[in-house]
Amino acid sequence: MIDLDDIRSLATRFFDAIEAGDIDTMRDSFTPDAEIWHNSDELIVTRDQTAATLTGMVARIRDREYADRRLTVFPGGFVQQHVLKGVRVHDGVPVRLPCAIICKVENGRITRLDEYFDSAHVAEFRKFADA
Description:
This protein has 4 helices and 6 strands. It has helices at about 5-20, 25-30, 45-60, 120-125, and strands at about 30-40, 45, 60-75, 75-90, 95-105, 110-115. It has a single domain (about 5-125), classed as Nuclear Transport Factor 2, Chain: A, CATH 3.10.450.50. A 6-stranded mixed sheet has the order 2-1-6-5-4-3. By secondary structure, the protein is of the alpha+beta class.
C-alpha cells in the first residue's frame, strides 16, 4: 500500500537536505539508477552528477531557502513548485530560481526527477561557477 505521508516526508527531507547543504541525504533520497532530467538542456543525468552539481551550488550560494513550497503528493510521486533563494558568495548578490519538480517515487526513494526552470535564472545562480 502506498503511504502518501511517507512520500510527503521524503519530499520534505529531500529539499530540506539541499537547503541545509546535506548532499549525502539528498543523494540517498534517489535510487542508484535514478534519472534526473532538466528542461534547460534536456539531458538526463545520474544522482552522482546531480550531487556534484549541488555540491558546487552549495559552495557558491549561501542562505539557501526553498521558499513558497507548494507540495502535492500522489500515489507514486510528488510535484513541488518553489522559489530557491540564496545569496551568491562571490559578490553578495541575492538570487532566486522559480522551479517546478516532478518526482516518481518507488519503495521510498526517487527513481526519476524532472526539473523545470527558466534558464535566465539558472545563469544567475551559475554566475562565477568557474571563478
